[in-house]
Amino acid sequence: MRPENLLPQDGEVYFYPQFFSEQESADFFKTLQDTINWKQEPIKIMGREIMQPRLTAWYGEPKAYRYSGITMTPQPWTEELMTIKYRIEEESGCYFTNVLLNYYRNGNDSMGWHKDNEKELGINPVIGSVSFGVSRSFNFKNQSDKNLKEKLVLTDGSFLLMAGNTQHHWYHSIPKEPKISGARINLTFRKII
Questions:
Q1: Cα dihedral value 38, 25, 173, 6, nearest 10
Q2: Secondary element (H or E) of residue 136
Q3: Complete domains list, the chain, with CATH
Q4: What is the tens place of the pLDDT at every residue in 72-123?
Q5: For the chain, how many helices (H) and strands (E)?
Q6: Is the sign of the CA dihedral 186, 81, 100, 130 positive or negative?
Q7: What is the model's pTM?
Q8: Residue 6's beta-bridge partner residues?
Q9: Residue 87 phi/psi, 5° resolution?
Q10: Which distant-in-sequence residues (6+ apart) come within 8 Å of 58 by Cβ?
Q11: What is the pLDDT of residues 113-171, one digit of tens each?
Q12: Is the CB of residue 129 less than 8 Å from the CB of residue 187?
């Protein structure tokens, strides 16, 4: 059974705080940390090129992904990524072709305000986000009503599903939290059209 929608309007967000067990989460974190081909790449923001404040990787079907001036070429699915993919597909009823992985080395790594609305994702993209490692804040703000904001904490082993027209109306971000010294790995599963 799906949890309650966290957004008051204009979208659908569902949160499963302990989707993976503590042991599964620890095992996945260690394996992903050690075996994923992590990169830090420059992105373009408002005409300026800066290094992304986190490490990233792109895996899955042979479909490129473009955002902020980067074109990512996928590496093939690993056994661990396929296991995670099947688990969230079974729960969500969605099929995912690829996964963007983010490695937040500590609280200084972050993700600015954005929407996952690239044309390759289709009209109402579904994003399945899985977190392993330290808990981090995840913020939403509505595009048209600046007073509409939502905040939650993405915990170790959690699964967040963003669906419906969320990416049309809501920005989301992972803010810097300098007091956090631990690392977090986030997997955002997508379907490339």
A1: 150
A2: strand 136-142
A3: 12-190 (2.60.120.590)
A4: 899 999 999 999 999 999 999 999 999 999 999 999 999 999 999 999 999 9
A5: 3, 14
A6: negative
A7: 0.93
A8: none
A9: -65, -45
A10: 65, 72, 73, 74, 75, 98, 99, 100, 101
A11: 999 999 999 999 999 999 999 999 999 999 999 899 999 999 999 999 999 999 999 99
A12: yes
Long-range CB pairs of 58-62, under 8 A, 24+ apart, other chains included: 58/98, 58/99, 58/100, 58/101, 59/98, 59/99, 59/101, 60/96, 60/97, 60/98, 60/99, 60/192, 61/97, 61/98, 61/192
Collapse the DSSP code of 57 into the 3-class scheme (helix H, G, I; strand E, B; otherwise coil) and give the result: strand
Q: Which residues, 6+ apart, have CB-to-CB distance to 39 below 8 Å?
A: 55, 56, 57
Q: At what angle are helices 22-35 and 79-92 packed, to 10 degrees?
A: 130
Sequence-ordered list of residues with C-beta below 8 angstroms from that of 99, at least 6 positions apart, any chain: 58, 59, 60, 81, 85, 187, 188, 189, 190
Using a pLDDT cut of 70, give the percent of the chain over it.
99
Rounded-to-10 torsion of CA 171, 73, 99, 121: 50
Residue 27: partners with Cβ closer than 8 Å, 6 or more residues away: none
